[in-house]
Amino acid sequence: MKGTRIFAILGCSMFLTSMAADAFAAEIRLKCEQRGNRSRATVQAKGLGAGDSTVKLTSAGGEANGTANIPAGQDSFGLDFDSGTEAGAVRIPGTFIGTTATAQVVGIGEQTATCTVRSR
Fold first, then answer.
1. The whole model's pTM is what?
2. Domain of residue 114, CATH code
3. How many folded domains does the chain comprise?
4. Which domain holds residue 47?
5. Cα 24 from chain centroid (whole Å)
6. How far apart are alpha carbons 108 and 120 in whole angstroms?
7. How big, in percent rounded to 5, are the helix, strand and coil portions of the chain?
């Protein structure tokens, strides 16, 4: 009887621990667009700890790297890659974005997205 109780408690503990880990899992989102001679991409990540996160964006034009800082008490960031003059964005060439792009947040994972391609 005692052994059964111990196994039940251990089983519940393991189940609750796995649920908590899933609830705090990191998530990466990528939006990208190519319009004429303009390329833009936004990488958003959440469920991270404070500190610097390195982001690698890969598409038809090659690879671009950026760093985002997550202040203490927060768990997310957004980082823009842009061929225009957007302040704070990582500069990329106007022809950088193709039909797909992949964003990788070092140590967390990657996300591939189909990019919106507009003629104007």
1. 0.74
2. 2.60.40.10
3. 1
4. 26-118
5. 14
6. 35
7. 20, 50, 30
